[in-house]
Amino acid sequence: MTRKYLLRDVSPLGDGTTDVLLADGVIAAIGGDAESLAGDDAVVINGGGLILLPGLVDLHTHLREPGREDAETVRSGTRAAAMGGFTAVHAMANTTPTQDTAGVVEQVWRLGRDAGWADVRPVGAVTVGLEGERLAELGAMAESAAQVRVFSDDGKCVHDPVVMRRALEYVKAFDGVIAQHAQEPRLTEGAQMHEGVVSAELGLAGWPAVAEEAIIARDVLLAEHVGSRLHVCHLSTAGSVEIIRWAKSRGIDVTAEVTPHHLMLTDELARGYDPVFKVNPPLRTQRDVEAVREGLADGTIDIVATDHAPHTREDKDCEWGAAAFGMTGLETALSVVQETMVDTGRLTWADVARVLSTAPARIGRVPDHGRPIAVGEPANLTLVDPGIRRVVVPEQQSTQSVNSPFGGRELSGCVIATWLRGRATVMDGSACDESVVVSS
Ligand SMILES: NC(=O)N[C@@H](CC(=O)O)C(=O)O
Ligand SMILES: [Zn+2]
Ligand SMILES: [Zn+2]
Questions:
Q1: 287 closest CA partner among 356, 241, 355
Q2: Is 307 in the active site?
Q3: Measured from the CA of 156, which atom of ligand 1 is nearest?
Q4: InterPro entries, from UniProt (predicted)?
Q5: Low-confidence ranges of the chain (pLDDT < 70)
Q6: For FRET with 186, which of 194, 214, 227, 412 sits at 20 to 30 Å CA-CA?
Q7: What confidence score (pLDDT) does residue 388 get?
Q8: Which domains are delineated in the chain?
Q9: What CA–CA distance (Å, rounded) separates 27 from 297?
Q10: Is 280 annotated as ligand-binding?
């Protein structure tokens, strides 16, 4: 039996205020009868001004287990997810061993279930060992207990067009989707950062926008040709937004994600040679940042996904050229979206629920998440205080790694509480310095 929670005067999707009762794992009442049905034993949260959202769903998380438990584990990564307001995460396949068999994806799924912080949906590798040659056992992963629906060689691009075509065709049988890390490998050999004015000045090898755009253009045409569903990971350039806009206008079944860091940060940050800003795809220009914000606002880009990529100090605290690509993001994603998109008037909180919960749940075919806030629905929810301002301290986060590009920055908003099937995974506002009054 989970406890009952009475949320007084909360604002579902930021629209009006009401009382919400959580009991027996579901939303038991909204409005009038919530108070009377609560009884004496409910935990009461006085939520004046707090926004209630469906639990966030991340389509792109690196949990690093099995293989790199020194950077993150399923337990530490999903705890970070809960702190960030997430109730479900997709665990990327670039683990060691690779998540390319039913056995490995079931292991990751089970670790997530046992940890209990958030539902873990393992992503299956497209090719054996992410090597881009032979298709992995996609059907067996789909039919396993992990119920894999998203397949990706993320970290690497499925660059052989025949392999990509076969994968797109194959996953139709079980309503799966191929999530492509769009990076033309020959155009990015040795690349260290975005190719442009700053890379030329710093003398670092450039990762041109066309290396991303060429693969996206090819893949939307392949998806159209075989009538399959395609998802584009961490889209980062203005040109990519244009291609997706064109593809959608033709009716091609493509979805796309942008990361919080590509919504906020630019390649100017590389000037300090601090590898905390080294990521794949690289931070781009202000013009690209404007384009991805606009694409997210007009629906061209479907979702925000974190690409939470924890790395150890050994792998990050070195010279730029030797450092690993990647940055953490689960505990700052919602704040970055609030600051770049809500506080600027580009998205409403209902839109935030769409881009961070409903749409990723739909793309990943995740049951019980991304649902409306309505009586009878599973109580997968997060409660947010948009009024808080907080400085990010990576060492104090729940993720085991400290490679946050937002360390030392002040951000808006903080998660106060998160519920997974009616059980509180975050309750004391521990993700921020302030908390709402909880009495029981
Ligand atoms: N984003 C990154 O820079 N790194 C990711 C791989 C990836 O998402 O491509 C990682 O696994 O570290
Ligand atoms: Zn990637
Ligand atoms: Zn990734």
A1: 241
A2: yes
A3: 9
A4: DHOase, DHOase/Allantoinase_Hydrolase, DHOase_cat, Dihydroorotase_CS, Metal-dep_hydrolase_composite, Metal_Hydrolase
A5: 1, 433-440
A6: 227
A7: 92
A8: 5-52+374-439 (2.30.40.10), 55-363 (3.20.20.140)
A9: 30
A10: yes
